[in-house]
DNA sequence: CTTGACTCCCAAAACGTTTTGGAGAATCCT
DNA sequence: AGGATTCTCCAAAACGTTTTGGGAGTCAAG
């Protein structure tokens, strides 16, 4: 409630001494240190954050930009991730501000505002694109940041990501091993790294198996996008018998398309993200997800290490993808 | 990139003039104003946020505490709500920081830290309890805040909430009108206002219809809580034929219990929240939700008005509840 | 020529903290 | 006793902005 000056006056000490006592410096005697601390507790003194930030030239803040483009925000785990991240950051004295992108502004504008206005010490980026202007900007400014998702940036930067290539390759190979030969891919917008990475994984597997890679349709990473893409693949002269979908939401849209076209249950399907609702679709949606326990904490920890000055190469976490097998990936394979 | 001093020097002006030019004061000539603005643009000058905050005695920050108690955080819309809220606040120059509660600390501790450390100008509270110590604290400090959910606080405070009482009363009456006589309620923890409010709505309807109110079981507001509560009600000598559940998650748990006990499909059920996954349960879950378009924006707007000094009474928004009818509320009613 | 109003600008204070660079007193060593 | 060392403490600067309270200069009216 009070400030340092008043507290110092009431104790008959200088501002300096009170400040140092509270910070536990050794150059104030144990006696006065205790006296100061007790008085501070009694008055409920808390240093004024703005003043400290100005003096220490640190904002004690980190921002994460929330993409608002395609209707909604990431998987439902996303808030939990953010929350875990914020909690971990808070333990290091950093608060997390969420920065949605208002219409008419770009994510780059946001970064600029936060960085150049010295509003934050570091940034968190999600939904990276293969060529991501935010990354380029932050690199040019030399401000610490971690991305959730890789980019194709030539100079390395810290990230945390799932190995979509390996995951989608494995899923495709598994379909092949189960006898499928016409395996389609429902892809997300290819400017996003994750979408392109997953697409590459599918393509790699198909080529390893000597199969054609024409059964691929791209759509918005939403239910509707998956629906439309699936309809497109179903119109193909030789229909797919299995579908590997870039996201669960798209997979759910694809399920709707399958139901409409042939009553469903004919075509195997697998998604990615492990959305809770996947457990309730019919058939229950088989899916994949990034391994790892406390992703939010990892994210935060990478950022803290980046702030501490570790080099980008040490700060790249690529997590394996694991299958979450339910039912949709093992529809009976009928002869063509 | 530069600060006011450097910018002023490079222009041969005083700091004062540059500052006032940028803020558009009338006491600097149009000519110099333009000159300053153009120079500022060229250098990419942005005022240092910490300095401004210190001087203006405003943190330009708002915090929302994220409850971490029961495993996860609110309905999935929650992040969208927060995002909309943050966007609206940002337009007024306020940034939203999310403040999850670390283990070992209470939400009250968080409020204290943020408020007494002058880290925020206002607060947002979610998941209110009937008697909420955070509300009491903020009221005692006189800092603006808005809650998402009402409380039983004697002195009024700004809130935005759904009319759970009316919604659950209506849902119960509808079951009664459909011929149900043994209508059970699966309640959330009664210390939460929303849970108690919804329970009261059910109870009021039952009493209006002259029905006993003993078919009520309380549980954690999670799938498992609903499951256990449903099992409890199903053990009752005269089983319910319909179930009104405090949340969709609990309703989904109840559906699982029903499936296990009698193969499901015998008992009508309705939840609240309109979780996306409700569309995929079997039977598809009928539910309710708060009316209103941009809840996040409303939330933010209430807060801005609170900061502007409007009185609490003008800042209470109670939204009607609307039904989202799918299938689970109209199971055939069999004779007892 | 003086007065008052108006225009454009600025020096300095203030916000509340942290940190620098000592100062004075006590203690230790020789 | 005298110098070196250690222990406590503090005055003042600094962080970068906004705001206060004028100060010159110009112009028109008296």
From TrEMBL, chains A, B:
Signal sequence interval, chain numbering: none
CDD domains assigned: HTH_LacI, PBP1_AglR-like
UniProt keyword terms in alphabetical order: DNA-binding, Transcription, Transcription regulation
SUPFAM superfamilies, A to Z: lambda repressor-like DNA-binding domains, Periplasmic binding protein-like I
Boundaries of every HTH lacI-type domain copy: 2-56
Domain of life: Bacteria
Coiled coil: none
Ligase listed as a keyword: no
Keyword presence, DNA-binding: yes
A molecular function (GO) term: DNA binding
Pfam families given in the database record: LacI (PF00356), Peripla_BP_3 (PF13377)
InterPro entries: HTH_LacI (IPR000843), LacI/GalR-like_sensor (IPR046335), Lambda_DNA-bd_dom_sf (IPR010982), Peripla_BP_I (IPR028082)
Gene3D superfamilies: 3.40.50.2300, lambda repressor-like DNA-binding domains
Name this polypeptide is given: LacI family DNA-binding transcriptional regulator
Organism per entry: Rhizobium aouanii
């Amino acid at each position: 409630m009070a400030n340092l000056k008043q507290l110092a006056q009431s104790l008959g000490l200088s501002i300096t001494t009170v400040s140092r006592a509270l910070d536990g410096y050794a150059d104030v005697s144990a006696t006065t240190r205790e006296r100061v601390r007790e008085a501070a507790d009694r008055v409920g003194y808390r240093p004024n954050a703005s003043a400290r930030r100005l003096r220490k030239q640190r904002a004690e803040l980190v921002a994460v930009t929330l993409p608002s483009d395609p209707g909604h925000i990431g998987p439902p785990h996303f808030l939990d991730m953010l929350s875990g991240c914020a909690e971990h950051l808070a333990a290091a004295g950093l608060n997390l501000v969420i920065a949605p992108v208002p219409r008419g502004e770009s994510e780059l504008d946001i970064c600029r505002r936060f960085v150049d206005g010295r509003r934050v010490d570091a940034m968190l980026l999600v939904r990276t694109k293969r060529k991501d202007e935010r990354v380029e900007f932050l690199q040019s400014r030399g401000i610490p940041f971690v991305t959730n998702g890789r980019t194709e940036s030539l100079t390395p930067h810290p990230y945390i990501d799932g190995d979509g290539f390996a995951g989608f390759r494995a899923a495709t190979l598994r379909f092949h091993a189960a006898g499928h030969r016409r395996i389609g891919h429902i892809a997300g917008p290819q400017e996003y790294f994750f979408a392109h990475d997953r697409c590459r994984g599918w393509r790699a597997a198909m080529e390893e198996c000597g199969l054609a890679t024409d059964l691929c349709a791209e759509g918005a990473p939403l239910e509707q996008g998956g629906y439309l893409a699936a309809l497109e693949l179903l119109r193909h002269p030789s229909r797919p018998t299995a579908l590997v979908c870039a996201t669960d939401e798209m997979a759910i849209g694809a399920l709707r398309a399958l139901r409409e076209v042939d009553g469903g249950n004919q075509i195997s399907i697998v998604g990615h993200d492990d959305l809770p609702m996947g457990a309730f679709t019919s058939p229950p949606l088989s899916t994949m997800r990034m391994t790892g326990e406390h992703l939010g904490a990892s994210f935060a920890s990478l950022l803290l290490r980046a702030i501490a000055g570790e080099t980008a190469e040490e700060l790249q976490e690529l997590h394996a993808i694991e299958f979450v097998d339910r039912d949709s990936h093992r529809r009976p394979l009928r002869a063509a």
